[in-house]
Protein 1
Amino acid sequence: MFEDTWRTCSKSDSSGASNSGCESSKESSRSSTPVLDTDRTDRLRDKMRHRTESGDHWFSLEFFPPRTASGAVNLISRFDRMGSGGPLFIDVTWHPAGDPGSDKETSSMMIASTAVNYCGLESILHLTCCNQTKEKITGYLSKAKRLGLKNIMALRGDPMGADWEEEEAGFNYATDLVKHIRCEFDDYFDICVAGYPTGHPEAESYDEDLRHLKEKVDAGADFIITQLFFRADTFLKFVRDCRAIGITCPILPGIFPIQGYQSLRQLVKLSKLEVPEEIMQVIEPIKDNDAAIRNYGIEQAVSMCRVLLESGEVPGLHFYTLNREVATMEVLRQLGLWIEDPRRTLPWAVSAHPKRKVEDVRPIFWASRPKSYIYRTQDWDDFPNGRWGNSSSPAFGELNDYYLFYLKSKSSKDALLKMWGEELTSEQSVYEVFTSYITAQPNVAGHKVMCLPWNDDPLAPETNLLKDELDKVNRRGVLTINSQPSINGKPSSDPIVGWGPPGGYVFQKAYLEFFTSSENVTALLKVLKKYEPRVNYHIVNVHGQNTTNAHDMQPNAVTWGIFPGREIVQPTVVDPVSFLYWKDEAFALWIEQWAKLYEDESPSRMIIKYIHDNYFLVNLVDNDFPLDNCLWQVIDDMFELLDNPPEEQPAEQPAEQPNDEQSDKEQPGK
Amino acid sequence: MFEDTWRTCSKSDSSGASNSGCESSKESSRSSTPVLDTDRTDRLRDKMRHRTESGDHWFSLEFFPPRTASGAVNLISRFDRMGSGGPLFIDVTWHPAGDPGSDKETSSMMIASTAVNYCGLESILHLTCCNQTKEKITGYLSKAKRLGLKNIMALRGDPMGADWEEEEAGFNYATDLVKHIRCEFDDYFDICVAGYPTGHPEAESYDEDLRHLKEKVDAGADFIITQLFFRADTFLKFVRDCRAIGITCPILPGIFPIQGYQSLRQLVKLSKLEVPEEIMQVIEPIKDNDAAIRNYGIEQAVSMCRVLLESGEVPGLHFYTLNREVATMEVLRQLGLWIEDPRRTLPWAVSAHPKRKVEDVRPIFWASRPKSYIYRTQDWDDFPNGRWGNSSSPAFGELNDYYLFYLKSKSSKDALLKMWGEELTSEQSVYEVFTSYITAQPNVAGHKVMCLPWNDDPLAPETNLLKDELDKVNRRGVLTINSQPSINGKPSSDPIVGWGPPGGYVFQKAYLEFFTSSENVTALLKVLKKYEPRVNYHIVNVHGQNTTNAHDMQPNAVTWGIFPGREIVQPTVVDPVSFLYWKDEAFALWIEQWAKLYEDESPSRMIIKYIHDNYFLVNLVDNDFPLDNCLWQVIDDMFELLDNPPEEQPAEQPAEQPNDEQSDKEQPGK
């Protein structure tokens, strides 16, 4: 918070925002069928009101943009982890010196956009107006709107340099920015402003500062977040004083769990706040013991928050996280505000972009790469009807660049080499990497395999149910990258597989997706004839050679839910059209993430390249969801056929050999 | 067949159809998701080819338009019954003297349209061109296309009067009509023409007649149906002769089961056919014994059809039904062609109108009145997305006229009075009518109640499962008009509740809809509080006073199916918006069908009118489909509350009394 020079001006005259040139930018709302979560259609201020009226307590989290691209990748992982605890919103600070409105991975704008679009978090973008032209500010706001951001924290910001003076027609105060937003964008954005429980350090007086806060609210702000403070009484008095002069909007206390001696010192300097004597007395003696200070900080924050919540004046708490998670999460856990087992609205994370809120179906292929899916479909107009029918489908984004979430791993090259092998000696050594990942056992070099190119995270709890079977088949070169078990009507509240509103039932068809050799595919196709029409399959290689038994290329729903008073929800499909787009990405990951770890022409790289060039990507669906999953039996039958082939009939060439022209190519490492 | 003067001309020169002014009327095809029955998207000629290629035998049925409106109602019931046996198509003959292209209920055009739109039957409309202007013929064809008809039987027809002469620019031959259809409507219609196994009676020779048939096919006909014949050899020789001169299209034999002496005599006279001596020798001695003749006719038709089918030249049989069903059905049963247990594509009959083929969801309210539903939504543009959301919904057809299928009963006033009571003495006597209908037991006057205003047919087999419960509640004034049991994953092949393609599973939520008094509703609303959110309800009276616990007025899917390789199909919903349109119709049926049986101001009429004015229409859904249906328990709890009310609290007026202002009105018959 203090890093982004979050201040209002104390000067008395705060008019100046133009009221001319207003244009209404209200958007027509469009409703999807069925709406599972009424929150999804609400604005932040409405959600806040509903939660407050229901007597529910909630929390929000503040982050600042990282300095480096790898810092950005880590922060976004943190968004996912901290997002799972159920914050009402997060906010991202604005750093005028850091090109905050640019398209850089580390800009405030892109970090906030990522939180909304990829992590599905309701987000507030900070914006400072000091020393900015109206055109520039309008440009930032238009861009934010285009990216799906709906909430702005309107700040003055620090003057750049000591010789700053008020400009006649420019922005001198946060009030000017609030007025400008309302004028140019009507009621589109929810607007938040800053409050100072001890008065702004530059303000003439506490009362004068309160009057300026009232002006900001009167100009159109929807709620207030306060600067941090150290005593509950400070905040509670501030709220009383605000109410007394007619400020009626929500006022959220800014909570700062002390996390270390240095960061506290820096804070004191930047924010010109005084740390109370009783806190300094505790901290000074333990200033070299980080753990002790953090534990004290947690304890101090918890007890202060308890007083705030019990006062009845505080519906929610806003946390200055300093981009760290341990202390804030611990405070929230102790307060009982952290949602340990969040209810999922759909089996995948719903994007918070206003346009994507209505999205209600996705192909299963990107289940482990949702950010890539969102990136590739970001220009789609129509998500609720986002089918991929032959003629009606808008194209997927092209596979032509390397976006942050697209083909890069979040692990370093060194870490990847440790996990996936410094040196590969055969296809079998690739199989062993898959097996180590599945079983969570160390690989031959003693390192745990925490990710694969297709799976950036360890196995999901749901997939863990299949671990033994997955282990067995991966050892034999059925290299699984995605699977789900069948589910026949589990309650929507089930902690592992449940999703959607209470009182419902969720279902799944068993699904298995893997890479495997063309020899295996030849046997598999023979075996699959016994499983018609129970099992649907799609089999494709990198060249697009494609075999399927799908009806008319129709999508197959593999996850669905039945809920009280709703239509059926079917959020995950095996879609034949999108599979051919996924194929490009799935094969590219062999090369981009794995082969390129090794030197050109090295045996390791050639092994991965051979797999990329010759293996097939296979997906199987067992349609008979009430019965035991037969897909393992299909693979067993395939192995059985390979192990005990029927007597040779030399004159006959198997008709279903899908990759004949490749079969006599040299196979390295065999 | 002979009634519509179905003949081609034997004159040699059959040119004359204009080739100018052609316009393409190809329609863009639009695919729905998911397509359950690939047949639904095919043309008749494609279906015929698929069935023939598969080695399957099939049949079709010919009908003529009835003379009276009540005859039309009966014929349409026959369409439903005979349609259930699985004909590939039906055809409707054209009677130039009977205003065949008009909007009258009895016209050929309207009968064929009804078969397509309301009965979901693939249908061929006959059309004769003799003595017609091109404008008139084009007008008929345009109207047929507009009504959803896609197949035409192109005939010359009899000249009107003896002084007929060829017209220069008019239609003299069926060939002219075929050419005209292809010219004006491109490939839109499938065209059938007539063939004469013994030569046309007016033809110069058998060979000359064959050459004219070749001309008709060359002009664009897709297949041939023959005039009736009495010996299999006659037809098989005809087919050989057709093939010999290059006629390659399907040739369907016209089968006429002899059904009586008089109809056979009439046939002989009109068609100028000779009945073979071996048949006359059997028939003459039994000419006064109708049953014996019909049995002989069945036996003769079956043995001839067996020879035809075994020849390998005959993929399907076309039956001249004379609008009767017994003989034809018996022949088909003995041949094994009648489908005793037809597979339903969806739980309701799919309309065969090209525009409606993609329709995949309907409100449950019209389950027993599908024709009324189709009529009221006939002007909708968009059936597959036919949701009834608050803003997006097109209006239902207005309740402003009395169409054939709309508010009239197919029974006569006399029959209705016998079933529903010559004289009603109380509301209780109305309850007894409902109970008699449910239990299929005679009413107090000894008559079976075969229908109710809301149910034109006896109880469906599915509803029969609920008979005991329905009986119990109707006796106490819970007047049920629609219900379905819960189903938790029965195979799609289930003979009673199954629908959709094989290998799937069907599901239902329990549903119950009834009229009941405002006293009962007051108790019911108290009881329903215990069943939140398990039970959804909508309760409305004729004045539109409406109570519901539906989320945001969203539809609730109450029938759905899961199939191999498809998305989820959810064909039946409880839709809050459409319920308010259904309410108008459901209440109107009390007055239009029942009250109006009795004299103005008569006690019987006043009793029905009282119910109409004061009762509520209630629907209940039990969302917890895997558990036992709780809706009977809800009704039991309501009775329990009524029988044993909690102690009086005199000062308190029940808040949920929904119809308070009506409660002190005089109640006749109580």
Protein 2
Amino acid sequence: MQVYRAPVKEMRFLLEAFGYEQVSNLEPFKDYDLETAAALLEQASSFSTEKMLPTNGVGDVEGLKWDAETGAVTTPTGFKEVYAALRDNGFIGITGDTEYGGGGAPETLGIAMGEMSSSCNKSLAMCPGLTRGLIEALEAWGSDEQKQYYLPNLISGTWSGTMCLTEPQCGTDLGLVRTKAEPDGDAYKVTGTKIWITFGEHDLTENIIHLVLARLPDAPEGIKGISTFLVPKFTADGKRNNVKCTGLEHKMGIKASPTCVIDMEEATGYLIGTPHKGMRTMFTMMNAARLHVGVEAISGAEIAYQTCLAFAKDRRQSRSLDKSKQDKSAPADNILVHPDVRRMVLNQKSTTEAMRGLAFWAAIQLDVSRHSTDEKAKQEASDLAALLTPIIKSYCTERGTANISEAIQVCGGSGYTTDWNIEQYYRDARITMIYEGTNHIQALDLVGRKLPMHNGRLVQLFAAKVTEMIRGSKEEPRMAEFIEPLKKISKILTEVTMELAGKGMADPEEVGAVASNYLNLFALTALGYVWCVQVKKALETDNAFNRAKLKTARYYFSNVLPEYESLVTLIRAGKAQMMAFDVEELETA
Amino acid sequence: MQVYRAPVKEMRFLLEAFGYEQVSNLEPFKDYDLETAAALLEQASSFSTEKMLPTNGVGDVEGLKWDAETGAVTTPTGFKEVYAALRDNGFIGITGDTEYGGGGAPETLGIAMGEMSSSCNKSLAMCPGLTRGLIEALEAWGSDEQKQYYLPNLISGTWSGTMCLTEPQCGTDLGLVRTKAEPDGDAYKVTGTKIWITFGEHDLTENIIHLVLARLPDAPEGIKGISTFLVPKFTADGKRNNVKCTGLEHKMGIKASPTCVIDMEEATGYLIGTPHKGMRTMFTMMNAARLHVGVEAISGAEIAYQTCLAFAKDRRQSRSLDKSKQDKSAPADNILVHPDVRRMVLNQKSTTEAMRGLAFWAAIQLDVSRHSTDEKAKQEASDLAALLTPIIKSYCTERGTANISEAIQVCGGSGYTTDWNIEQYYRDARITMIYEGTNHIQALDLVGRKLPMHNGRLVQLFAAKVTEMIRGSKEEPRMAEFIEPLKKISKILTEVTMELAGKGMADPEEVGAVASNYLNLFALTALGYVWCVQVKKALETDNAFNRAKLKTARYYFSNVLPEYESLVTLIRAGKAQMMAFDVEELETA
């Protein structure tokens, strides 16, 4: 049973709470005021629910067909039609530059619409998701000629994009890339094997443009010798390029999303960006992708939540422990009377709503950082987006997956069967902790890059936002119950950050050992801040929606935030007990 | 890639550490001294690895065939042969009574062998697992005639058993059972529909004996009106009984284990035990099953651990943060140099070894409780087994599943593919948190039944064991680092238990709200105790195995045990923020 209603009201609330007017006041977005934005979200909501959702289970069951001889990949029944409808509605290029036929919408709305698509069909939504990444890389690094040629086709969705990074010997460590690019006139001949290439081959678009990491003949070793190339499936003269899908991975989930082995044998490619500086191009694509991956996990958590709530509302089992709540007209009470069912439901609700808030906050910063004419606002927004991205990617994917597991638990045996689809959401979501940089890579990005960046400017900005919230709430006694725990955790976060900086200077392994737990501590603090922003907004008007917000925030502060206590102890424990082992001592005897 | 080596040395160590001689000194087990036990485990290890493991992935991919007309279920390729080999090796009835052809081995060894089978093919291992449950129910409640007729065939594995509890309207709440049994001479006519019936129909045995919960015509309402019946697929006269599999569930995992809808239409059944007292019969079967389910999750965690370690030992990616550990002969270092990989590996190792210790400790108590002639020893053992069973079922399934997820994370993208099989272990294990009583039902059993039982005698016994460990270690300075944290957590557990007892008397919902977290707090304490037992044993001799034990224990105390801190805060938060919501306020807007 598929249950989904896009959280449009919730999203509109978040847009207001996190200052969407900062975005709609920007010159390029003057056509996207709050009302227009809300109407667009309603439209995307209907589309996702009516068109995308019905194909989701079909895709999981049918999977993909791969022809060994031609390398062609056939998507499941209905995917072509739904993709065509996505394209014809202008959703694929909704955030693309109007100059190239895009919708010119803010990234914030792209993120919101992406959540809906991904809730309803994560596998299919990944195709335009990757295209958007390529569009961003082209906008940032493409030559004028490249933009003119590729962007209109990518933005319209006539073509799609991929990101070809991984090779058998190199995943996290891109310095090990071996794919080669030899100059050939104005172009290059690219040779190598790439793996884990999402939508590397499929039948949804007329052409597929691969963004490929490779080495030029004179490339220095390591990541300082990587360049990026555009390798199209069909070149401008209409010829089939020497790029072939030589296999598909068999995976636990996202079974309708082709994960391809891509072989290139002297394939024609075009340099994009500066020679040997390919990591910059790649990171343009990757940073946007990381935020989207966090949102994918939120999207899975959302549909799983709605599904388990629908199940729970219908299911009667055992009696309320509170006699006054027992329904004598039936042989058992609805399971929502049971405190533990409430606990599981609220663990999901209080974190999913906060994670979405965090993603919206970051998305708004992205738009401001790209388009503001106020240099200070631009820099602050850029700093915040950079700081929050690894947190969103790692924490939201970990918690989102855990939330889906909790949704299964609410449904008991039914949750484990295919009848309620939650088991698919669980399998589909598990990859989000791995791809676009494993969660630990995000933690190292946070601790090793973002914290020290500009002498701690990013983290100081975050601390300033928290302080501003605390100070600004002094006159509002109804904020006190939320501000007190925020104060406490942010004080501890500051202490732990200082301790870690000290330890890390003496021994970088100490940082590696605790970075993942540190990121989660940071995330719990950030979600606390995000809840305070929502509470502040909710206190403006007394209505049913806002009352539920306050209750959900209370649950977060009393029943989720305390997870930080153990994290602090684990962070302080450091690396000592991890590094003490010889490898043989890890073996089962 | 399938990687498995049964932890025989580890198991032998645990048998010694937890006092297996208490079992082998018992009259019925005098043939099973430690050496014989170790030899049997070696034999089971080879069997599991050589025969069962190769069919595991096959079963997952092929799944089951069901014939709608006849209701027949066909198991995957190779399952019949492996089952026959299990039977011919005498493994199915290894713990069965020798009087009926059983091996007469202690339950402790049954548990150990069960772990191996379940690591290597969880789906298949579930069939004899259920048969063993039925054997225990028959031994405890069957008439002499029933024992004579059923036990030899079940113990030999010629027939198999099921447990028919759930109906569409009743899972957790068995009081809602509607299946009816009408007297018919010496027998009964049983009519009703049962769902989620594991191995309810299959082609591995000549006959299938269903243990069915049903109501007699004069039954009182609720669970006080439930009786148990034996309903064979073929009756003694060789006739096909009116029991039919009318469908199979489609599940996330255990795809080779048939989960059947079983329709009975005036099927011939035989009362077992006392009329209306069927819950007692059911619980005999269920309690053993719950311990086995905990072990199933440990078994999944073990094979996943070994797999991710094999992957990690082979994989090179990035450089050690410690320059002295960098391998200059290769372009990257082995990933086990990275502290976070260590963290993930040791989270698994330090909990899996402790959980196995807990299960062995409980298993030894089961044997002593059943066969000791010393009344005090018998009662203490029975108390401990009763107390530890819900903890093992709930904590080990939750942590075991989390450990498998961590094993996937170590392998990155490879962990998400079918190539390394961990994704199957992850899907297969997820059900353990649900079946044989959801984990929250275990928590209610612990808090609502086991704690107050005999005025707190069970929990006082546990506390006495901990105190004995603390006192007995005073003279051993090398124990201090392990005893100190045990002291601390057990003191807090006592405090929290007292608080909860007080709160629960005033408002039972307060107990329901925190029971799951309380169970986890209890489990972390019990694992702390279990590690102290292992450390004490390991300190006897200085060798490589024992040194690794000490290091693993240290990791547990510094990097896992602190999880209790947050649990305590969550328990103290109570129900307040959960019960504040109206149902409509839970809806996504």
